[in-house]
Every structure is written in structure tokens, then in C-alpha cells.
Amino acid sequence: MLVLHQVHKTFSTPQGELPVLNGIDLTLDQGESLALMGESGSGKSTLLHLAAGLDVPDQGHISIEGQRLSSLDEPARARLRRQHLGLVFQQFHLVPSLNVIDNLRLQARLAQREDAEWTAHLLARLGLAGREGYFPEQLSGGQQQRLAIGRALAVRPSLLLADEPTGNLDEQSADTVLALLLELVAETRCALLMVTHSARVAAPLDRLVRLHLGRLEDSHP
Amino acid sequence: MIWRVLVTLLAHYRRHPGQLAMLLLGLWVASALWSSVQAVNATAKDSYARANALFSAEVDQLTRRDGQPLTREDYLTLRRAGLPVSPMLEGTLEVGEVRLTLIGIDPLTLPNDNALGGDGAALTAFLTPPWQTQLAPETLDILGLSRREAPGATPDVNGRHQLPPLALRPDLPPDTLVMDIAAAAELLESGNTLTQLVTAPEALSAPPDGYRLSRAATLASPEQLTDSFHLNLTALALLSLVVGLFIVQAALGLAMEQRLTTLRTLRALGVPATTLILAILLELLVFGVLGAALGLASGIWLAGQLLPDVATTLSSLYQADVQRSLVLPWHYWLGSLAITLGGLLLAGSGVLWRAARLNVLALGQSQAWRRGYQRQLTRMSQGGVAAAVIALGLVLWLGRLPPGQGVMASFGFVAALLLGSALFLPPLINAVLRLLQRLLHRRPLAHWAVADSQLQLPRLSLAMMALLIALATNLGVSSMVGGFRLTFLDWLDQRLAAPLYINAESSTLAPMLDWLEAQPEITETLPTARGDVDLLAVDSKGGEDTTRERIALFGITPSPTITNRWPLLDTQEGRSAAWAALSAGSVFINEQMAVAKQLAPGDTLTLDTPQGATRFTIAAVYPDYGNPRQQIVVPTEALVQRFGGEIASIGLVATEGAERQALRQALVDRFDVAPDALVDQQEIKRLATQIFERTFTITRALNGLTLGVAALALFATLLAQARERQRQLASLWALGVPRNTLTQLPLYQLGGLALLTGVVAIPLGIAITWTLVAIINVAAFGWRLPLYLFPWDIFITLLTAVGVALAAAALPSLQLWRSSPQAMLNKGAA
Fold it and tell me: Which of its termini does chain B have fewer beta carbons within 10 Å around, N or C?
């Protein structure tokens, strides 16, 4: 499903070159879930962005469903993203101008893969049924993140990338959101790569890797 | 404490310098355009005041009934009869390309408390050789002298004349020289002739035998004539001020929204509401003074650029002389500052109101913005309805007024129309977007774009309102000017019927006429004549009114060359009957006179002819663009014989093979006229068209600048919200929308909104054109123009709307294109 091979990434800063990823090798199979942990600034989000095709590595290659991202131009990477990937951010990144239902089916519609039945099912599973006409500003933090998860899964992606999806939530909301996320991932049988700081959040996932000094250290939960 | 609060509030702009720049930009442009027009108006008013102070409009004047020029003998005869008259001599001296007006007076007999000439030693210097030339400091430039060199200097004029020693008089009009009548007679080589005999107003109860008396009250001053022109300028400047204040309000609103948390924190920390409001007021004052200073400096520069064209316009339209250098009295500075500060307070009143009603316990600044904006839209619609009702009331009232009246009400109508339309615009855009949202439900990106446009509407609406006002005014004014140009050129073609014209002194033209008629290559001579007459009474449908008013007379030759082309607006029984009536003793009047006196063909005028009071029937009304005064047309022959008029020019129709150069040379040799006395019709048209184009230079400049300000308002608004926009677009990018598409989206969104605004601007612009040609022009100039619509101008309006929007959206789009979406996502997280 997702393969990262000898991926290197360096950023230029006013203080000079800053190597962030230093030969990353990682494989994630369909239906598998992986937690990526590490200290702040260790490059977790960079790795996630590279895996999503939001950025390109300096060296090495990344493949999703057998397609090398380096062989794709920007529009093709964008197409791959909207059709096969789901992204969940810590800050939700919902579209404030669209209501709940339009936010939920936005990506599926962009990918021309809307499934009304699945959308309705998701809406119920997210606990947002009856709030279709609400706008993001009218929802609580937990509801907004559930909606963001639903939006990512509405397209039935093969790979879900989540960047600290519970980082902005209180403990109780975080637990609810995480449980829902894992249930839906299992239901859709997509692979999950989740960046998190929290060992508690990482615990239910199949595998855990730590990023340290730009390299991955495998550690099973 | 207030200083600490102020410093805390101002710290916001350190983090958001763009908003500060937008605020100052708004104040700057608003103040600059307003103060530039006020500088032009103040200078013109100063010139009029000086001209009035001279004497022309404040004295009664005597002329001979037989139409002969006044002489020194007339003066002596009247003085011997004990009448308090004073002689005046007026002529021109050409210095390079500039004509200086030379006025000779006798200060001892001059009426009123005129200080010309002075008293004591100054009076002696004025009255006795080598005499004295009094002039305003502004005139020195023409003579090539500095202020320091001027006193006592005796400059040569064109190597022919030496002026008496100069003495500066700042209260004199520019381009005017005043001296003792004896010195003036020598310089003008006028011999025994006088140009005027004047008396104090009402000093004579009746004219002496053989003379006509024109009362001061019937001589319009330049200030009266040009009032409407300056009102037009002020209205345009006010429009620019309002558009600039839109930017200010947008900037203040944005800063307020972003500082709500700070304000709540300050309140929570124990700052009283009054202190907070005072601090905001103080902040506004600081910005206001800064903006006004910037605006004044640029306004004065702009006025300096516009003044020469305005002066030319006023001179060609109203014969009103305006100096070429700015005069800025103290009240100009104070007024400009007050207008800027007042406008800022008005624009900031919303911010102050929100600060006063601040809820310390409110949690989030963006909470319920949607509901809040819906309320605002409802209020806007209600305001729009109120403005529309006012506009309707005014237009109904204007419909009941006689033509040529209601300038202020017309401007009120245009203002209410603009305000109403501007207030209706955001609700209209909102409704269209809601409809589009429904229609585009199956196209997610378009659906998003429409929904996102709706989200941007609260911030964009002010800029869109400014754009609407600027576009509508632009279309309205350009259609008026375009229509005027067509009408004017057509009129010029009809009026200039003869292919050649001779302009020379009347005394030369009379014998020349006989000679020309004897020339075989001249097939027709069409002399025109000028004179004036006292109007004693008018008899119209409204009843008979008696008056005593000096009216200009113009003589034309009613031969087929003229009668087939001369334009007529209104006749009693058709063109042929009107011309037959003119030849039989009726008169034509110009449109200005018909409007001012409510006259129509069939009405009668009683004129004070040398043969006594005589009634004349009005046979037709003719258009007379460019003439500020009322005028009566009679046949040339009648004007010379019955009214003592003088030949003013001769139109010539020559045979095909006639040699113009030979004719010109013959005229120079035989009649000692200048070589340019014979003018081609095309040359006159070219000059007239040139003057016409200059007339509207300031209108076009102000119009263009207003549109520029509206574009700036849009640009500044987009820049101010660019960061938030990037976050929205970055989310879409993360969902798989290509960056190319993302970069184009804002262009489509804004282009669409601007196009809608442009569509609304079209009927609004047409309404403004109608008001200008049918009401304001009639009141300002005395003539009505046909309403012309130019599809090309309308297309250009739409194109301008979209162009302005795309230009304003280009930079934020470029920023988007150049920044990494990943960084934008991270910015959103910050």
C-alpha cells in the first residue's frame, strides 16, 4: 500500500541546512495501522506530508498502491490524493463556508465518487445526523474533528493519514474520536498512518515506529 | 492608563502593517482628492472675489443708444451735466501667447469705496507721470520679473510698449494691469475712445438722454455663473471622499474583528469601557491627522496639475479668469482637516459602537458571524429601501420644477440613488450566491467557490459597494461627455455653415463687406453682428413680467446657406415659417434664455430699441452650447440698422477655384488686417473641439481617480484577508485540488462578483447620465442634451469591473502560487 524507500529530506533555514529525514524505509500494508511517534520537531509531520504527496523528498522514493509519487506531476499527485487518500489534521481544516453535509461529501464529490448511502451511514456513525445544516463554527471541537474524519473517509480511501487527530481535544473527546476513527478504518479496511505524541493514542494501533534523529526505530506496542 | 491601552491597541498594527497601510491609504486618497478639488475651488473663488472687487459687477454702466463707441466728449458732457460718472478704458496687451487685460481708470471719479489708486502720495504717484502700473504678484511671471525686482520696474512689452513703474496689489485679479486712464490710452493707442462710463449703483435714477443704463444687479458675476460648475466638481470630490472612506471603514472593521480578543482581555483586566473608547478615539485621531497631512500634500500637488485645465474651462465657458497658481486660505487647511477627521469618525463609528457594546464574556470572535451578517444584510436592505424612497420622492419633486432648477435636489437624487444601490448590492449578491449554491450543488468545486464567496462577502461587500459607485459614476459621466461631444460636434457643423470666416475689427469689416461682394470668386457673404439691448418685458403663458436686463444680440444672415443648416430646437410652425418670421421681424432666442425665462416660440419680448420699446415675437429657440449668457438672434442687417450693432465677422462662400492665399493677401494689403484674419472653417472646428476636450479634463481625471481608489479598496481588502484565504485554499489543496486550479479560483470568484457589480452599475450609470443631461446640465449651463447611450461604454464598464477585480486579485493569487501549500497548511496551524 505505502512504501517509503531511503527517503531523505532537508530544509534550508536561516541557520543553514537542517536534515530532517535521513534515509527512511517504511512499508504499510492494506488494513494495517501504524502509529508514528517522536519528539516535537523530529520530522513526523514532514514524513506524513511526504507520504501524502504534499511535499517531495530530496532523495529516495515513495509509492502508494504501486505508483511512485516522484513519477507523478503535481496535478497527478493531486488526483491521487483526492481519489485514494484521506487526510485528517490536528486543526481540522474544515471549510467554514460549507455546512456539515457539504463538508462531509466535499472530497468524495471532488473525486466524483460520492456514495449517498455511505455518506448517510457516516453521518450517523459520526453522531452528526440532524446537524447537516450546521456550519463548522457551530460545532464543538470533538464534533469538528469527527466531521474531518468523516470527510476523509467519505471517499473510501485506501490510505488514511492522520496528523495528531486528537491533539486539540480533551481526553474524553479524544477517546471518543479515536475509537470512532479506528472503527471506521476497520470498516473501510484502509491503511492508517497516524502521527501522535500520545502513547495512549498509539496503543490500539497495529504497529508503532519512533522517529529519532531523522531515522525510524521500530518498536511494537 | 489610557496611554498604556493605546500602546496595546497600536501594537496590533506592528504585527499587521498591511492593515495600517490600508487604513492610511484610504485616508490619504480620500483626503487627497477632496482637498485637491477644494484647492481648485478656493483658488477660483479668490479670483472671482478679486474680479468683483475690481468693479465690473458692482457698478452701473452707461452706453450710447446709437451704438457708437463712447468718447471723452461723452464723459465731459455728462460730468458738466452734474452726473457722477467715471470713465474707463479696457483693452488687451499681448505678451507672448498671454493676453493681459489693461484697465485704465480715473481714481478720483471712480464710484464706491474702491481703493484703486490709493490715497495721499500713492494717489499722486498713480495719477501723475510717469504714472504707475498696479498688478497682482501672480502676473509678474508673464512679465519675466521676480517679486523682488518688481517694485518700480518699467518692463517692455513686446518691445513696443514700456509699462509705467510697477506696484504690487495682491487683491487684483491675475493677468490684469490697472493704471491711470491717460497712461492706458497711450499704451492702447485708443485716442479719444472710452470703453465704459460707470456710476455707483443706483446713483442715476434714469439714463441720461441718448444713453442706456445697465444696472449692476443685472450683470452676472463670474461667481454666479460658475457656481454650478464648482458644485459639480465638489460632488465628484465628495464621491471620491466617500469611496476612500469605504477603504477606511473596511480596514477599521478588520482591525476591530482581529482585536476583539485584545479588547475583551483589556476589559477583563479592569480597563473601563469609556477608557477603551477614548483610546480608540485617540487612535483614530492620530491616524486622521497623519492621513490628512498626507492627503493635503498630495491634494495640493494634484490641484496644481489640474488647475491650468480648469482655468481654461472656466475661461472658455464663462469668460471667468482664474489664476494659474493656487491660493489656499486658512479655512481651506482647516476645512480639509475637518472633513478628513469627520469622515474618519463616521467610518469609525461602527467600531466605536461595537467597542461600547463589547460583551466581556463572549467566547469567540467568529461566533455567530453568519447570523450577525444576516442581520446586517437585512439592515442594508432596509437602508436601501429608505434611500430608494428618498430618491423617488426627489425625482417626483424634480419633475414638478421648471427646467433649470433643482441642482441641489438633483445631486441629492444622485446621492440617494447611489447610496440605495450600494446598500442593495450585498443583499443582492448574497441572494444570487444562494441561488447559485443551489444550482451548482452537483459541481463540488464550483459549489465550494460560491459558498466561499458568500463567506468572504462581509469583508468584500464594502469594497464592492465602492466599486459599484465608481463604475456607475464613470459610466454616467462618460456617457454624458460622449453624448455632449456628439451633440456639440453636430451643432458645430450646423452653426459653421460657411467654409471661410473673416475676423477683424468692426470698423474694418464694414468696408470689407462691400469689397468682398464685388469679388467674382466670392459667391456669398454671410456677415454676423453683435450688440446688446435692454430687455424690458417678457410675455409668456405664465403672464407678463417687466424687467430691465441687458441681453446680448447676435445677428445672422438668413440666406439659404444658413437657414438650411442653422440648428433650431423648437419652432412655432416649423423651420421654414420660423426663418420667414425672422426675416419679417421676429426673433430667435437661445436655449439658455428660454430656460431661464420660461419662454417658448410664440411668446413675446419687449426690447428697448433706439426707436423706443418694441415687441418682438419669438419664432424659434436655438441651441447655443458654450455660451454662458442669454442671447437673442435677429438678422444682421436689422441688428446694425435698428440696434446699433457692429459687424462681428463675415462668413464667405467662395467658388470652387478660388485662391485662398490670394484672397488672404488681398485682405492684408487692402485692409491691413492680420494674415490670420481669414480662417478656415475646419480650423475653427479644431480649436472648438480642443477647448471642448480640455473642458472635461478635470471630470475625466477625477472619474479615473475614483475608479482607481475603488480598485485600491478591493485590493486592500483582498490583501488584508489573504492569510485566511490561503488557509482555506490550502485545505482544498490537501484534499486533492491541483494548485493551478486553486490559483485560478480566486480570480473566477472575484471576477464573477465584479461582473455582477458591473451589471448593477449599468442601469445606475444610465440614471446618472439622465440626471446629468436632463437636470444638472440645464441648471449648470442652461442647455439640455439628448440622452445618448453608448454600448461600447457599457461593455467597457463591465470590462473595467472585471479588470479591476482581476488586477486586485492578481497579487494574492500570485502569492498563493509562489507559496508552498504545505507552508500554508502550517500557517493555518499557527
Answer: C
